[in-house]
Design a protein that fits this description.
elongated, single chain, about 100 residues, mainly alpha
Amino acid sequence: MPARWHQGDKCNYMNDRKSSPFFSKPLMQPFQHRVWDQKIDLDLKITNLKQFILTELYDTFPIDEQHRMSMQLIYMQQYSAVLGQRIDHFVDTGAV
């Protein structure tokens, strides 16, 4: 998967949007906008959850709840990777 779709913060994606061929296409399909926006929002949530897991407050939660949050993070990262693959496909095939 290209580095541009690895986990990151929303600011990087927002800056990349301005120069991206994906967003420079005037006839981009509405569902493609939604996929892109969904990935940006999900990556921000991933970043926030990662930061929360590093806090002292996280350590006060019961172990089973910590495990659920860790599993949530893994699933969110996998979901983000799939969204990135879909976006790459839009760009690579000119389906925008």
